[in-house]
Amino acid sequence: MPATLILGGQWGDEGKGKITDTLAAQADMVVRPNGSANAGHTVATEDGIFKFHLVPAGILHPHCICVIGAGVAISPPDLLAELETLRGRVQLQGRFFISDRAHVIMPYHPLLDQYEEARRGSSAVGTTLRGNGPAFTDKVARRGIRIADLVAGDAASLREKLGLALADKNTLFRHLYGAPPIDPEGMLELAQQWGQALAPYVISAETYVQDALNAGKRVLVEAAQGCMLDLDYGTYPYVTSTSPTAAGACQGAGVGPTQVDRVIGVFKAYTTRVGAGPFPSELLDEIGQLIRERGHEYGTTTGRPRRTGWFDAVAARYAARLNGMTEIALTKLDVLDPLEEIRICVGYQLDGKELIAPPARVEDYACVEPIYETMPGWKTDTADATTIEQLPAAAQAYIARLEALIGVPITMIGIGPQRKQILWRTAPMLA
Ligand code: GDP
Ligand code: IMO
Ligand code: MG
Fold first, then answer.
1. What residues flank ligand 1, with Cβ below 6 Å?
2. Three-class secondary structure assignment of 52-71
3. Domain boundaries, the chain
């Protein structure tokens, strides 16, 4: 049975956790393919609120196996702490696994993240400071430490790898950042302790996932971040350091493109982003603040206020095409309930010309003038609707307009954080 990908269509925090939790009720396995503890996926259930950083949101369904794939970088203390918060609430043994090929975020990675952000000054990316970028830098530079290295019990090889990884870092710490160097032996000891703690969960994840697909299991891939934070196609350099795209999700989960038949793009009914970088439809006024408060737009991982703005249909259409999205889950429609009127960014203008897609240069992206279309608001509470037909006509018109602009059917609509606050639609409403 082919796999289903769940991807962020904007700048992250679209509600991927909630959509994954919803679909996991009928899935056998959820795989996390990318990112690290930079992600924060919140799921509100009858048993309280769960905030996931590394563990797939499928863990809340007892029948569902959860796997962290090779494309993720794992900070062992963060993962162990997250598992600790779940212990007693969910069964982990025998249904939670991590890839032996996943890279390790070592304690020097968050330090490098912090020092490098400080060094950039006004050009800082606004990262989550979780060490994501430096860990993936080491991976690409072929000097990373992997989970397999921690659990192998081969101290000599691990010492050698740590020596290689730390040689340049200690030079940077001393001479570029003016910081104390890291002791390799201390790192070795920590790495060995982590290896012992994580060993029960470590498997060859790609083989496990492939076996599940071959056995006809229903596999979901829950990506982190969002397409506009992609290293290649996002607002570079204000991006993350892995690929939150369909291609990146396949790579990180160990799934081939021919093994996927559903690509669900998750979009908010408006736009948010955390950290620096261009945001043409940003609202810096009281409407932006109202959306922030109604949507509780404060980061799950860092607590930072999220920047808010109107729905950006140019970026959304770009993301839908790039990822071959087959359907869309539109979340947080309820947040717009009190608005008199709602705008949609339907075009970008740069130097008097209309662009059909985001420009490559961030300097250009920062200068684009959004072209807006305005629709009437519905000024009605939508949180208790149980069918799409119960939504006010203006809300249905807004959904239909977004669908037409993006060019992909909207099949799920979120009207609140709770599990039951989701409306399903099978027939597309493409204009
Ligand atoms: P993710 O990173 O894509 O999983 O998204 P986050 O969990 O970081 O942020 C989404 C937030 O919106 C979470 O607090 C969810 O509980 C909440 N949420 C998800 N869907 C809806 C919805 O339809 N309406 C409202 N009001 N909140 C939602
Ligand atoms: P989820 O999975 C929103 C952003 C950071 C920063 C940039 C680079 O919850 O949607 P990084 O720490 O990755 O080097 O930071 O990417 N960012 C996210 N923004 N949601 C996320 O994850 C994010 N993960 C990273 O704010 O702008
Ligand atoms: Mg999030």
1. 8, 12-18, 40-42, 44, 296, 300, 331-332, 334-335, 414-417, 421
2. ECCCCHHHHCCCCEEEECCC
3. 3-87+205-424, 103-200
Mean of the per-residue pLDDT values for the chain?
Answer: 96
H-assigned helices in 64-154: 76-86, 108-120, 132-140, 147-151
Amino acid letter, 297: E
Q: Quick one: which atom of ligand 2 is closest to the CA of 12?
A: 10
**Domain spanning 103-200: which superfamily?**
Adenylosuccinate Synthetase, subunit A, domain 2 (1.10.300.10)
Does residue 48 come out as left (phi exceeding 0), alpha (psi in the -120 to 50 range) or beta?
Answer: left
CATH superfamily of this structure's domain 3-87+205-424: Adenylosuccinate Synthetase, subunit A, domain 3 (3.90.170.10)
Q: Determine the Cα angle at 320 with ends 208 and 301, to 5°.
A: 65
Q: DSSP letters along 396-422, please?
A: HHHHHHHHHHHTS-EEEEE-SSBTT-E
Burial 294-319 (b: 16+ CB within 10 A, else e): bbebebbbbeeebbbbbbbbbbbbbb
pLDDT in tens, 77-107: 999 999 999 998 999 999 999 999 999 999 9
